[in-house]
Amino acid sequence: MQLNPSEISDLIKKRIENFDVNVEAHTEGTVVSVADGIVRVHGLSEVMQGEMLEFPGDSYGMALNLERDSVGVVMLGAYQHITEGDTVKCTGKILEVPVGEALLGRVVDALGNPIDGKGEIDTNLMSPVEKIAPGVIARQSVDQPVQLGLKSIDSMIPVGRGQRELIIGDRQTGKTAIAVDAIINQKGTGVKCIYVAIGQKRSSIANVVRKLEEHGAMEHTIVVSATASESAALQFIAPYTGCSMGEYFRDLGEDALIIYDDLTKQAWAYRQMSLLLRRPPGREAYPGDVFYIHSRLLERASRINADEVEKLTNGKVKGKTGSLTALPIIETQGGDVSAFVPTNVISITDGQIFLESDLFNAGIRPAVNAGLSVSRVGGAAQTKVIKKLGGGIRLDLAQYRELAAFAQFASDLDEATRKQIERGQRVTELMKQNQYSPMSVAQMAVSLFAANEGFLDDLEVNKVRDFEDALQSYLKSEQPDLMAKINEKGDFNDEIKQGMKTAIESFIKTSSW
Amino acid sequence: MSELATLARPYAEAVFKRAKEAGNSQEWSDTLAFLAAIVQDDSLAAIVNNPRVGQDKLTKLLLDICQEQFNGEANNFLKLLVENGRLTLAPQIAELFENYKAEDEGYVDVDVITAYALTKAEEQSFATSLKKKLNKKVNISTSIDKTLIGGFLVKAGDSVIDGSISGQLQQLAKRI
pTM, whole model, 2 decimals? Predict the structure, then answer.
C-alpha cells in the first residue's frame, strides 16, 4: 500500500484529534542489573505477575519473578540499550496481541507485529496472550472430523475438531511435512490455520511459507514465527500468541487448526529463562512448572458449544459451535519417548501420531508407526465411509507387523500366513503418500476399498502405487459423480459400495498401469 | 541494591521495634542517618573495607567519631554491625528505618516536580488533594525541572502521577 504525504499527515491529524490528554498514574522502579535478557528491577511495588513493563527506548519486558526486594523481568526483544538505573514503568496490562481476520495470510512475530513486508495489519482487536481455557459447561464433545488429507492418518488415527493430537518423532521424520499437508488440505473447508514456528531456522520458515503460498494455502493461514535467533522470551510466548489468534475464530463459532512446531524448543526456551531467573531446576534441569506451560496451552484447544458461542459473540452468532484443534509437535532424541517433555505432552494430548526414522528410511512416508499411534477421541468424529473401510486396514497392518519378521521365509509358510504377509505388504505400500498431495475423502475411500476388497492382492508390491495413481486419475475423469457423492456426505451404503466396485472393475478391464 | 535491602531488613526491623518501645525513634533516625553518612565518607570507607584493620580497632575508631552523637544503645548497635561485618549496610538500614517510621506515623514523602516554581497557595492545594488521594499525611518537597515544559510530576515512593506536558507528548508520540 502506497501512501502519499498528505494522507499521512491526515492520518496523524486524526490521531492527534482523537488523542485524549489524561493524567497518567503509574508505578515506577529502577533497573538494578541486566544480564542474559533478564533484568532485575527495584521498586515497582504494585506490579502484577506477567505484567508488561515499559523500558526506555520503547522496549518492553514481562514481570515473571516477584520477589521481596526486586522483580525479575524478561525482556521481549532487544535489551542492549538498557542500563543500570533506567526507569521502568508499570503499564497495568498483561501482554496483548492483535487478533482477527486481517491476520490471515500474514506472517507475524511472537508479539503480532508483521514481518512479511506487507505493511500494517488492519485490526483493532487485541487479546491477552494468556487466557484461561473454556470451562466444563462451555464444552462439547468432539464429533466432527478434521481431514488431514493423509490416508494413513485419516484412516487409522483420525483427528476431530477440538482434539489435541501430538505429532512426535525424531528429527528428519517428516513431522512438519504432516503439519503442512494438514494446512494445505484445509483449503476451501473454512478451517482457519495457524502455524506457530518456535526456535526454527529462518530459512525453514521461509520454505514453509513459500510452500503454503504455492499451494494456495496461505489465504486461510496465519504464521507466527519466533525463530532461533529471537530471544527465549519470544520463543516462550509464541505458542500462546498463536493460540489467542486461534481462539478468536473458535469464539466466533468457526473452526481453527493450530500447529505448534515444536513444543520441545518452547520448553528449552522456558528452561533457559527459568534458570536465568534462578528458579530451582528439576528433572533434566527443567523448572517445576514445565508441565503446566504445556497443559495450560493445550487445554485452550477445545470445542465449545453453541450457547457459549452465542454468549461470547453477544448473540450475534447462533447455533454454531466453535473449535480449535491443536497439533503440537515434539521432537524426540534417538526415539526416546520416555524423556521428560515427551511424556508430559503425551499425557496431556488426546493421542499421538508416532513417526519413526526406520520407517522413514525404508521409504514409508509418512513414516507413521500404526502400532504406537493412537487417537483417543477421533474415532467418534471419523467420516463414516473412512471408519468403515479403515478398520480393515488397521487390522491388516497389525497382523502384518506380527508376522513381518517371517517375511523372508515366505516360501516355507502356510497359505493363510503368506496371504496375510502379502496383504500387509500391499497395504503398507498403499499407505505411502507423496508430500503436498493431500487426498479427499472420496479418493481415500476408493483406495481403502480397493485394498479391503482384495483388488491389490494380484498386483506386484512395487506396482501398487502406480495402480493407485492410475485408478485415482481414472475415477477423477470417468466417475466424478460418484466421487462428489462420497465427498458430500461421507456415508457408506450398498449403493456407494456397488458404485465403487463396478468403477474399479471397469478400470481394471480398460486401463493399464 | 535489592540483595542489600534483604540483608539490611532484619537490622532495620530490630532497631525500629526497639525505638518504638523506647519512644525515641527521632533520636534513632538521627543516629542512623549519621552512621550512614560516615560509612559513605570516602576516607572512612577505605578503612571499613580494609581487611587489615581489625574489628577492635575499627570499633574504637568509630566509637571515637560518634561519641557525642550516640547513646549507649546506639554504641551497642554499632558494635554489633562491626562484629557481623555489616557496617556497609548502614545506608540501607537507615533508608528502611525511615520507611518503617513513615508507615507507622502515617505520612508519605512526596516530591512534587514542576516546570515553574509553585506559589504557597498552589503547594497548599497540592498537599490537601494528595492527602485525600493517598489517605495519608503528606510531607511535600518541591523541585523545579524545566524539561517538563509544563504541568507537574508527583512522586510518592514507587507511584508516579504524571501530569506534565512532556509526559503527555511522549504518550502522544507513542500513539502516532
Answer: 0.89
Which is nearest to A176 in space by CA: A138, A157, A203, A143?
A203
Q: Which residues of A touch B176 (CB under 8 A)?
A: 12, 15-16
Determine, for residues B158 and A40 on separate chains, whether the beta-carbon distance falls below 8 Å.
no
Alpha carbon distance B75, A54 (integer Å): 45
How far apart (Å, rounded) are the C-alpha atoms in residues A381 and A389? 15
> What are the backbone angles phi and psi of residue A126, rounded to the nearest 5°?
-125, 150
**B64-119 pLDDT, tens digit each:** 888 777 888 888 898 899 888 888 899 999 989 988 988 888 888 888 888 888 88
A262 cis-preceded (ω within 30 degrees of 0):
yes
Residue pLDDT, tens place only, A215-250: 999 999 999 999 999 999 999 999 999 999 999 999
Please give the grid coordinates belonging to residue A468.
493407485
What is the pLDDT, as a whole number, of residue A398? 87
Which residue among B2, B163, B175 sits closest to A32, beta carbon to beta carbon?
A: B2
Alpha helices in A371-414 (DSSP H): 384-403
In sequence order, what DSSP letters do the residues of A424-447 get, joined into one string? HHHHHHHT---TT----HHHHHHH
Q: What values do phi and psi take at B139, rounded to 5?
A: -120, 90
- Asked whether the beta carbons of A326 and A298 are under 8 A apart, the reply is yes
Tracing cell 574504637 back to the chain, one arrives at B60
CB pairs below 8 Å between A and B: how many? 57
Tell me whether residues A24 and B172 touch, CB distance under 8 A: no
Residues A329, A403: Cα–Cα separation, whole Å: 31
Cβ of A320: how many Cβ atoms within 10 Å? 15
Q: What residue of B is the nearest CA neighbor of A25?
A: B161
Nearest 5 degrees, angle CA A69-CA A73-CA A76? Answer: 165
User: Which residues are A109's β-sheet partners?
Assistant: A225
CA angle B42, B47, B53 (to 5 degrees): 180
Q: Which residue from A164, A142, A382, A127 is spatially nearest to A251, judged by alpha carbons?
A: A127
Which DSSP letter does residue A220 get? G
In B, which residues are within 8 Å of A69 by CB distance? 2-3, 5-6
Q: Is A158 helix (H, G, I), strand (E, B) or coil?
A: coil
A500 in helix, strand or coil? helix
Name the residues of A annotated as catalytic. 376
Rounded CA separation B70/A22 (Å): 50
CA distance A108 to B169: 29
Nine cell digits for residue B46: 577505605
> The complex's ipTM?
0.80
Q: How far is CA A302 from CA A160, A293, B75, in A?
A: 10, 17, 68
- A32 contacts chain B (CB < 8 A): yes
CA nearest A155: which of A400, A460, A402, A451?
A451
Identify the sign of the CA torsion A206, A209, A212, A216: negative
